[in-house]
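$ fold --in a.seq
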Amino acid sequence: MKDLSGAWRLYLAENETAPAELLSARCEEDIAGLCRQKLSGTVPGNFELDLMSAGLLPDLYYGENTLLAQELEYTHLWYCTDFDVPEVKGNEELLFEGVDTVADIYLNGELIGSCDNMFIPHSFPARSLRQGGNSLTVHITPAVIEARRRSAGAASDMALSYNFDSLTLRKAAYMYGWDIMPRIVSGGIWKPVWLVSPPSHSIDQLYIRTDRADNGFAALRAYVDLKVSHDRIRDYELVLRGRCGESTFEVKKPLWHTEFTFGFGISQPKLWWPRTMGEPNLYEVTAELLYRGETVAQKKLNLGIRTVELERSSYLDENGEGSFCFRVNGQPFFAIGTNWVPTDAFPSRMKSRLPKILELLEDSGSNMVRCWGGGVYEDDEFFDFCDAHGIAIWQDFMMGCAIYPQTKEFARALEAEAESVVKRLRGHASLFCWAGDNECDQSWQWGSRLDPNTSVPTRKTIPDVLHVHDPWRPYLPSSPYIDSQAYATGNAGRIPEDHLWGPRDYYKGEFYANAPAVFASETGYHGCTSPQSVKRYISPEHLSPDPSDKEWLVHAASMEATGSGPYDYRIKLMSDQVAVLFGKVPADLESYALASQISQSEAKKFFIERFRYAKWKRAGILWWNLIDGWPQFSDAVTDWYGVKKLAYHTIRRISAPVCGMLAPDGAGALDLIFANENLTSHQLTFRVFDGFSGEEFAAGAHLCQPNSAGLAAKLAEPKDQRVLSVTWEYGGIRGLNHYVCGKPPYDLADLTQRLRAANALELSGF
């Protein structure tokens, strides 16, 4: 395997001015003679980053510079490199892990392949490879131009304002502009490139699933797909070995064919559990392919033995009752976690940002993460981390907020993508469910009032792939999912799993206090980034909070910044939320950011606690979201620079497996409720007091039952504005929470002082 990543030569030309000879050029010599702009390119990379490195483009994350990216959308890219091969074996392939997006690949001037999907790898036979020096050229066509050529011509297609040209290409939707991301319709070779020689023997696929795990026994079934070089298959044997601590297994299978399945069992297995319910035990598994007793191929993987089911009702009944609950190894699982969005606007930088953000994911207390359908499919490291740390994954396929083409051409592209993704990810214990898309079922309702159950991509294409390659895992055609029964009965607005955005007004208002969803897979609230961070992306003359300021609008994802764009409302929204809580909007940045972060922190605290103390009437909440994908004003609890907002620290505390929460009982009193996500009981002691005045309201002991929520005490609710502290201790573990009494508006200085007294004001970047 030869790594071809690194420094390449990059040529750029605008589509409208590029001569026809350039667009059809097959080798660098011809390209160089016709193209006026050449610079050093990086693979993996994005061409805008190369322009910035060369000083030809300012930092697109600063001020209003992001708008300059729109002028680059019509740019053709030619990536060129040379490499030596000492010997040609004849079976070599060029493997591109990720090309963004529509590209032709030329090896020594010969077209060896084309690709048009940025989400999956592409491999091409290196037909024209020669001994010694070789030249490789990749011509990437501007995505917006290619989208015009592929227009489906369907009146039923629908998308957000910036996103219509994303519908026909398998390219990340966020790159066209979203309410959380800028419009940078980039291009590039965003993942590594390799020259590979496939071995004569290989274990191409090894997938082990759990059929049953109960009563001290696990029934497993393995699927293998092998490549062999000799005809006599009976000379081969497959040996499968696994170990997790003292638990081991070994299976030997003689071969009758190169593709087959077989079952085996393990007594007293170590089961994989989400982090709040137990240990995420993983077996180290080695598969060996033997030929006449000698090992000729090997494959290793980590295996988590567990079962996952999803209990779900079509809609909520007239009493608001319904179900949406995952069961792990037969036990109900309460999900507390976040949504995962692209970690950078430039996909080539995502991998380098992954390790620190994964640390945040674990530290936040999340036991589930939803990979949102407007981004990309994450690297294997993401899934390996979640396997090892007991974090369940909800995986969307990459479609969002649109009615996608119902054509055969789109179906074929999506089918190839789904098959590639499913085969890569299905072996992960952390992968709990597939979802067809993000909010596309609702998109069928927003403008057209059409039945989403007629959608070909999510009701036909993806299910067909899953039926063949992973039929045992829960699948939701959309999130939120409006099934045929909910649609036919007029209950599309009363579904058990929902995205709770609502009016974004007071966080304890009618919508947020009474939303009937059993499972919230999205919900959020704005919080200003820290003053230090704001000063890194907003220029000095624009630092004062102003809903009409152009730079603030740009960093709230308004790609016109004219005051009339679809996302121009977001700065005003953030300011209005501050005004609701404090009665006015501070004029200076430091006070504004503080007020906004308190507002966000208390809102998300209320959202999460409302679900936790109502366990099992409610079964999970995935808040929006962990980290920004670029410097912006948003619902994220950590900004792009890694600076944590107040809400991060609050969420971390209240996501503890055992948490004490105060909740109004509706009759003038407060209920102290303890939620326990562990499968064991805990005897604890607690105290409720005002840290500012020292007044004590309750103290005592409580037995937390396993995997439940229960009332520990009742206390009179103070009518004045104050902050109560809740502390508890069990088995050497201490917990802390707080509760803000009274009704808004609050005085910012007074509430700040009271939160600090309650140890509930952990600030960064102020």
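$ fold --in b.seq
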Amino acid sequence: MKKTKNKTNALHILKKFKFLFHSVRQYKKYAILSIVFVAIETLLECIIPFIMQLLVDELGMISANPVVDKTGLLNTVLMYAGILLLLAAFSLLFGILAGRMSAYASSGFARNLREDEFKKITTFSFQNIDKFHTSSLITRQTTDVTNIQFAFMLCVRIAVRAPLMFIFAFTMACIVAAPMTWIFAITVPLITILMVIIIPIATRLFVKLFRKYDDLNEQVEEDVRGMRVVKTYAREDFQKEKFRKESEEMGRGFQKVERLLSATNPGIQFVMYISMCLILFVGSMVCIKLATANPDGTITFGALTIGSITALITYSAQVLSSLMMVAMVLFMIVMAVPAINRVYEVLVEEPSIKNNDHPIYEVKDGDIVFENVSFKYKEDAQKFALQNINLHIKNGETIGIIGGTGSSKSTLVNLLSRFYDATEGSVKIGGVDVKDYDIKTLRNNVAMVLQKNVLFSGTIKDNLKWGNKDATDEEIIKAAKVAQADPFIQTFLKGYDSWIEQGGVNVSGGQRQRLCIARALLKNPKVLILDDSTSAVDTKTDAYIRKGLKELQGVTKIIIAQRISSVQDADRILVMDNGELSGVGTHEELLKNNAIYQEVYEIQNRIGGAH
């Protein structure tokens, strides 16, 4: 039963590696050339001991046979020496070429694999990303691909070299000293048993270690993103201690693996030296037994000569070292198995949101309809995040959304861009179900400014052109003016060509929000969603932004806010409570008939705030 399970697991790994092998693509020729060069190099290495045997035997004849024509034999020896030098030079050349080809193939494979993985991740919905977690996706793109790259390089070179070396060396050993090859029947099983014991243990340890990689990456990412908070609360020592514990635990795991693997090479070396001792001892005894004295005073050793024993020692080392290489490849593959599984999972993951067979490429207008919409983040979740939402928003309307934390305000608008799909019911824009649109077309027509405003390294103009890469300078400035970003941009020395650091850390939160609003406006969308996107600006700037947005004709605007002042001029206001619509109406209507809205309004307008 256990054998069947192990065989099934091995087949699954081979299937996954074969799937990943498609990423080799244009570098396949380098992999094939590397295999060819390795085969030639290995063959030459196995011929060299045979020539050495002939050379040693010739030298033995010179020393043991005084009547031999020493000049002729010396010429023969020089010939063998020349052949050896030539074989060594060609072996070196093909070894270098094999190394270069395998380096090209493995680095190209890793490049393509990272690119394929990244492309696949960009197709993921929020639901897919939630499944893997950001830190895990980073590990799968970096550490995991590197481990697969090393495993591939070893497979191209050593995994080809080792079996060829075993076959060639064993064959040559049988040719030069067949009576002595029984020694391999003792030494080879010893190494095999050693590998069978160690490899499964190492596999389990590596699987655990790669899980620790994710945890460590997640903590580093969390600390770097929240560094301002860490420093604000002076929690550096706490976070350092937390990181130290995680790092030490992972370090102990690697030490355990290293101790295990470090025992392998000495074990194989021990078996190799036993093999050499047996060959020398038994071979010497056989040579002495077979030795015969000739009438002319010379000694003949029969079929087994000093040269053949010398060659056999080399072939024995090659046979056992080939097994050592197999062990090294297996250990590297063991390290790569978790990585192969994790990268494979990403590449075969089907995006939960994708185009249907005949998508629609035009959004007529910003008319929005929610019909009996309910939604939960996971299929097995017991509670719906949204429940029984029925709503019609006319094209060009301005809609405000108010509600407490966790009332699912953002979840509601995420369904419009198909970041998630409704679990029940349907969401329509322009009279068409959002599932029937081409995703890119839909998202180009539904512009969203998220709660977390993200800018990328580059100039202000570069960042704004994310909304429309073909936007003219006039269009960029117009959008910036509506978003109230132009006044502070003009204060920068280079204006719109000023540099933005990664994440927009060199501008304030309010400035980031205004730049993100301008970026969304450049898309000329049918629907514009501001998800609490003016929370970091002052009320005066907020009022100017709302005034600018009001002038946009034919654009449906949805504004999620915590401040009633940000939405009170909207055509209608939605009040969300616990994933349901608690009320819909104008500011005045809700003040009369909605208790939640009344309470929020009173708290925000009470003199002294909470007093």
